[in-house]
Specification:
The protein is an all-alpha fold and 67 residues long. The chain is built from two helices and no strands. It comes from Novosphingobium mangrovi (ex Huang et al. 2023).
């Protein structure tokens, strides 16, 4: 598998992880104030997931530009 294909596969996994984290936060918000103690941890997980996703997208863009 080429580097581009590998990065695209990683992007797909990171995207799914980010979407799941976002949905977890959404679900948590609908149940407030129940679970309020979990909001910050879940929000941090969302931020981390999207940071990783954006970094991988930038990596793929740079690799494609170099090709």
């Amino acid at each position: 598998m080429s580097d581009v294909e590998t990065l695209k596969a990683e992007l797909k996994k990171l995207s799914a992880k980010a979407m799941q984290a976002k949905m977890d936060l959404h679900d948590l918000s609908e149940e407030l104030p129940v679970g309020v103690e979990n909001v910050m941890a879940t929000a941090e997980r969302v931020c981390s997931a999207y940071d990783a996703l954006n970094a991988k997208r930038a990596e793929l863009k740079a690799l494609e530009a170099a090709s």
